[in-house]
Amino acid sequence: MKIHSVVGGGGVKLHVRDWGKADAPPILFIHGWSQNHLCWHKQYESQLADAFHLVAFDLRGHGMSDAPEAREHYTEPRRWADDIAAIIDELGLKHPTLVGWSYAGFVICDYVRAYGQDAIAGINFVGAAVTLNSAAFGSLIGPGFLDHVPGATADDFPSNIQAMRAFLHGCTARPLPPDDYAMALCWNIVVPAKIRAALVTRVIDSEDVLSALDRPVLMTQGLCDTVILPAMGEQILEKCRTSTASWYPEAGHAPFLEDPLRFNRELAEFVSKARII
User: Fold this and answer.
1) I want to staple 64 with a disulfide (CB 3.0 to 4.6 A). Which of 15, 80, 128, 197 is the partner?
2) Partners of residue 259 on adjacent β-strands
3) Where in the numbering of this chain does the AB hydrolase-1 domain appear (predicted)?
């Protein structure tokens, strides 16, 4: 494992780590709202590292990346796009597959809208969000997220703790093992409430990006997901002509944690095919 500091949009320093073979097909993992690169540990600690160049990082405002207070660092789409472009460039990733969980769906669409598709091989949307507006609340974004936003964004730390504990419990269809839950709670709670709040103030419609994608797209979605509802996955499939679906009947919002063996196998197959097309 190697650690990198990459300067992204607006001068924000991003904490980046990579595993595996530098000359192997690259996979760039992008985590979600209030998360951390550690959420991908069942991928970078697996056999995927024997066949691929795995890269994961902490989004701006998360984990060990810079967390500037100014709201515009989180509400301007170009800054998110610049973050992804900077990592691809700095680490010399040649046509990486982008794997985006939850809020990372927005980040990937920000990148493609600004930089196009030429530099990537494909996209794996994982319980990914691509629409954020009032109409999406309840129809595409569910109670597993909406019920906990007030407490998670409050200027009151006990409220943050209570909300994030409940949110994390709701991310999986079955409870995580105690050690995994404790680690996940730690990486969730370190994100400042003001940053969590800033991320959800955006209004986003990604139809323009989805309809223009010609790179292969894998839509991975848990049917028991109450955070990002399966209807969001259906929207990706409807708008993106290059997309295929992988539904997890017994998984919630985190199929890569809930069924990592299947997830890793499907991801390896997708990356291998995406680089041939």
Assistant:
1) 15
2) none
3) 27-265
- At 276 the pLDDT is 63
Instruction: Tell me what percent of the residues of the chain surpass a pLDDT of 70.
Output: 99
CB 160 within 8 A of CB 154: yes
Q: Output the pTM of the full model.
A: 0.97
Residues 6 or more apart whose CB falls under 8 angstroms from that of 167 comprise 34, 144, 145, 148, 152, 188, 227
Kindly report the backbone phi and psi dihedral angles of residue 45, in degrees, each rounded to the nearest multiple of 5, phi listed first: -100, 15
Q: Which amino acid is at 80?
A: W
Distance CA 263, CA 266 (A): 5
What does the pLDDT average to over 109-125?
97
Determine phi and psi for 247, rounding to 5 degrees: -95, 135
Q: Residue 157 sits in a domain of what CATH number?
A: 3.40.50.1820
Domain count of the fold of the chain:
1
| Chain segment 145-187, per-residue pLDDT in tens | 999 999 999 999 999 999 999 999 999 999 999 999 999 999 9
Interacting residues of 193 by C-beta distance below 8 A, sequence separation 6+? 152, 153, 154, 155, 157, 160
Alpha-carbon Rg for the chain, nearest whole angstrom, is 17
